[in-house]
Structures are given as structure tokens and as C-alpha cells.
Design goal:
Layout lengths: L12 H6 L4 H27 L3 H18 L2 H12 L2 H26 L9
Helix pairs in contact: 2-3, 2-5, 3-4, 4-5
Length: about 120
Amino acid sequence: MDAAHHEEHPAYPALAALLGNDACRVGVVLCVFHHTVGGDLRRMEHAAVAGEWMRVRELAHRTAWGCRFIGEDRAADALEAVGHSVPDAFVKTFWGAHGALVDVLDRAAAFTDIRDRRHLD
């Protein structure tokens, strides 16, 4: 594990405190989060392209809980806004939340050293 795991300033302080400041346990939770939420993100993308906005809202709501659990409140707020957006603003709100969620997944991947096997040689 790298500098992101510096004990004085953990990258995921609330999650680390919840897990007894055990970096390995934090890593396991983040790996599960990355796998699960990554799948939900793909499902949201497919639903958005298909215009299945109720499905997008359901997935955004569920994913917001996961983000909140690991301390990613900004992304959780953006995902919750998807469920409350008016039809005219829905698409813009969704794609803004999408970008925030991609950033969360990237941080979790960096913390746990997850590599996307689709891009490995």
C-alpha cells in the first residue's frame, strides 16, 4: 500500500475509524465497493442510453448509499439529486453525478491498486 494509507491522515477517515483503522479491512471494503458500484454504473449507463430514467433513479439512489458509507458525500449528494431532478434537468443532473461517481471509483481503485484487466497487456 502506498502513501494514500498514511496512518496519520487516512484517505477514508470515517471508513477507517469504523473498521478500527485497519488498512487491510478498508481495502477489502473498497474492493467490494468498486466491484459492486462499477456494475451499477454500467447498468445506469445502459439505462440512460435506453431512456429508462426510473431505472437510472433507482440505481442512483442505491449507489448514493454506498458512496455515503465510504465517506464520498459529494458523489452521494450528486446521485441523490438525480432522484429529485425535474425532467428538463434530469439528463444534465445524471451526467454530472456520473462524473462524480467515476471519480469515486477511480479513487477507490487507486487506494486498493485495482487495475482494469480490460486495459492490461
